[in-house]
């Protein structure tokens, strides 16, 4: 019997054997990658005596065509009600009332963690010599920073008023022809993000958590993020984790918590990726870092992501790339990103064996040199297949 995923009083997810999971197919190549990813997820679940009762919900172009709304309230309500969901890529409407459907969904459900694990799968083409050294899990703050949408356009009445007010009240000289964005970074949002990263590090036996920030320049936002992170370690994780300063780099059995400045981090994840394990960072830094790291391990076609609120239990897992409209409907692109987001979803609901099976079968498929166009153009002696054929090859190897 299909049933809803719920949350117990002590905060655990209660998952029936046939959970109802809402999904958004996605625009553009969503029509290609969603059925492919779904077929693998279904096969892996079946192997372990489970089933998913998929429930389609609309967003993006399909929703706009059918309902006149880019993000219907029923869709948000379905994700709210069923706790866990998955989505393909969505077109960002240009000039519409919504800045980005993805950002809107994250804000409406308060999905405060953007979780992006980045690791290499043997055989995947990479531009670096040692992609196997990359095994990083990024916790990117998902609700604040310059992504909060607090912006005033250059020349608008609001921008003019704010510029005058800043001059009158703070003596700040902001050029009259400026657009203005506000960057809020709060103690609450910073600490719940760092808490999630530390809890993950503890649960997954990780060695270190690095706080990535730009606090040398932006002292009261990025710098405060760093300070609040360390404060949290001392207040809530003293038995399990220790800051670099408090142990001089020798944490013993505890998790080492250190920090690096965002610009040098972008160099170091390239030159010394094995020094990074779990990363906790602010929204914009996390956006840059996750794409930079993903590039080292095969790029956008295979990088998964999840947006999670660990307190309410809500999670929406998603392909991290866009709709790639030039390939839409061609059965051509790599379904790996959406599929691995599904793997993250399985792990999140405790279906670890099915998740591990998919990863093994994906690795076996790539090892057999069966790949989609994006990998094929970087490899020699491979068999290039369509999206659906790639999924079938994974299912055969489950
Ligand atoms: P994009 O759709 O991510 O495509 C950029 C390039 O990435 C593609 O041309 C292709 O590279 C590669 N790519 C994307 N998906 C792939 C896949 N499944 N397999 C292999 N390669 C893949 O970015 P965009 O063209 O900038 O954005 C298009 C639309 O998507 C926009 O409306 C944007 O707002 C939206 N978007 C949505 C999300 C989301 O929903 N999470 C994220 C980003 C962008 P090659 O050309 O080299 O083959």
Model description:
With 398 residues, this protein is α/β, with parallel strands linked by helices. It is 41% helix and 17% strand. The chain contains 14 helices and 17 strands. It has helices at 30-47, 60-67, 73-82, 101-108, 157-170, 187-203, 219-236, 244-247, 262-271, 283-296, 336-348, 352-367, 373-376, 387-396; strands at 6-7, 13-14, 20-24, 53-56, 84-87, 113-119, 135-141, 151-152, 180-181, 208-213, 241-243, 255-261, 278-281, 304-308, 315-319, 370-371, 383-384. The strands form 4 sheets. The chain has an 11-stranded mixed beta sheet, sandwiched between helices. Strands 1-2 form a two-stranded antiparallel ribbon. A hairpin with a 5-residue loop joins strand 1 (6-7) and strand 2 (13-14). Helix 1 (30-47) crosses helix 11, helix 9 (262-271) packs parallel to helix 10 (283-296) and helix 12 crosses helix 14. The radius of gyration is 22 Å and the shape is globular. The structure holds NADP nicotinamide-adenine-dinucleotide phosphate (NAP).
